[in-house]
Write a structure and sequence with these properties.
The termini are far apart. The longest helix is centred in the last third of the chain and has 22 residues, at 370-391. 16% of the residues are buried. Helix 3 packs antiparallel against helix 4. The protein is 26% helix and 18% strand. It is an alpha+beta fold. The chain is built from ten helices and twelve strands. A five-stranded antiparallel β-sheet has the order 2-1-4-3-5. Strands 9-10-11-12 form a four-stranded antiparallel β-sheet, covered by helices on one side.
């Protein structure tokens, strides 16, 4: 990010982009086209293309005609035509590349219905625009509370103010049709502005809000994906994925768009495989396919009376058995055609540096004062023994004289 508002503030604390999607350098936006023709001059007598691309909140882009012949460049804030009033946006693309983008999105550049640009936004327009953006978050919270109070099965996902603050667009998602006539009256009375409700799909909601997918990267729909193709569970079956809705569903609650990315490759690989529902007729009984390995060209079959025991066959062998079955010939058994899969030896990682242990830093350090404590204990014991020797009385080694009784003489 190259804009100053995305840098760090004093004390190395992240300041964050507080422009609410109005970054002036257009460096942290999604679906932005790099103008690689900006340094090229037009031939003599050629006029520049009179349409420009303008971006609004959450990557919403529209095309406008520059009828006033304004000198516009990427990053300029302009006031555009709206109904009613005017809107404020940022120019994201100019020149001949706009014509290519309009053709890509199916917009006729010769049509008279293309709205026009009024002027470059003044400071007053920018102030009103920024003040309106600051009101969006608390208004969204209040709008959700009113929708819950009316017990409507809908979700207010986002709110967008018009540049002049005269109209508010509420984007919502719902499974069925919602009667929100009473809700609009409450919104108009609460917010004192013109209200417009616009329903979007669950995928469009995820595209507008963005997020991180299970792969650890940003959502495709919010970064580069522009068309939402239908995704079926058959795409997961062809790729032999487990039909777990928690793993196959994205943040929008629908099947992930990435299930279609490699589907064509799998379909081409499956053209050389026999049908998955192929039954092999043998003298031991009929067998049905249980599993396929597209990359190795293997198929697993099991008898109807013994589904626990699987036999591995190559696709060439399966085609050979099917051809014999079509001629009315039954093979003896699957064991005659089965191959043995040798388990690959496990590769043990051996680090020559001897640092493969993850807990090598968790070992407690040896105390440096351990030897000192031992020396202190020895000196203390010696001193105590010397003190004991000094306190003892010396033994009297004189002979004991026994006096005889005179009466016994």
């Amino acid at each position: 990010m190259a804009c100053g508002s995305c840098s760090t503030s004093d004390g190395s604390a992240p300041k964050g982009c507080k422009n609410n999607g109005t970054c002036g350098t257009d460096s942290c936006n999604k679906l932005t086209v790099f103008d690689w023709l900006s340094n090229m001059s037009l031939p003599n007598g050629e006029t520049p293309f009179d349409c420009v691309e303008v971006r609004f909140k959450n990557g919403r882009k529209e095309f406008y005609r520059n009828t006033e012949k304004l000198t516009l460049s990427i990053g300029d804030v302009v006031a555009t035509e709206a109904s009613p009033g005017h809107d404020v946006g940022i120019v994201t693309l100019t020149g001949e590349l706009v014509k290519i983008q309009m053709k890509k999105k199916g917009v006729n550049h010769t049509s008279n219905e293309i709205p026009k640009i009024y002027r470059k936004a003044s400071q007053r327009d920018i102030d009103i625009w920024s003040d309106s953006r600051d009101k969006e978050e608390p208004m969204k919270v209040k709008a959700r509370e009113l929708a819950i109070a009316h017990k409507l099965e809908m979700k207010i996902s986002d709110i967008e103010f018009q540049g002049d603050g005269s109209k508010v667009t509420f984007y919502y998602t719902a499974n069925d049709r919602v009667d929100f006539r009473l809700l609009i009256k409450d919104y108009a009375r609460e917010f004192s502005t013109r209200i417009e409700m616009k329903q979007v799909g669950f995928r469009q909601e995820a595209s507008r809000l963005g997020g991180i997918g299970s792969c650890g990267r940003e959502l495709c729909c919010s970064t580069w994906l522009t068309d939402f193709r239908s995704v079926n569970t058959s795409a997961a079956r062809y790729q032999q994925l487990s039909l777990n809705p928690q793993k196959l569903a994205g943040q929008c609650g629908k099947l992930k768009c990435c299930l279609n990315y490699e589907l064509d490759t799998y379909m081409d690989a499956l053209k050389g495989f026999p049908d998955f529902e192929t039954k092999l007729k043998t003298e031991k009984g009929d067998a049905v396919c249980q599993k396929q390995d597209i990359f190795k060209g293997l198929m697993w079959f099991a008898y109807f009376d013994n589904f626990a025991n699987w036999h591995v066959l190559k696709i060439e062998q399966v085609k050979e058995i099917v051809a014999q079955n079509k001629q009315g010939i039954k093979v003896s058994s699957l064991e005659d055609f089965a191959i043995e899969i040798v388990a690959e030896p496990e590769k043990d990682f051996n680090n020559a540096m001897g640092q493969e242990s993850l807990t090598r830093f968790d070992q407690p350090r040896k105390s440096k004062n351990k030897n000192r404590n031992k020396n202190k204990a020895k000196t203390h014991n010696q001193n105590s023994e010397q003190n004991k020797g000094q306190n003892q009385k010396p033994q009297d080694k004189r002979p004991i004289i026994v006096k005889k009784n005179e009466n016994n003489k």
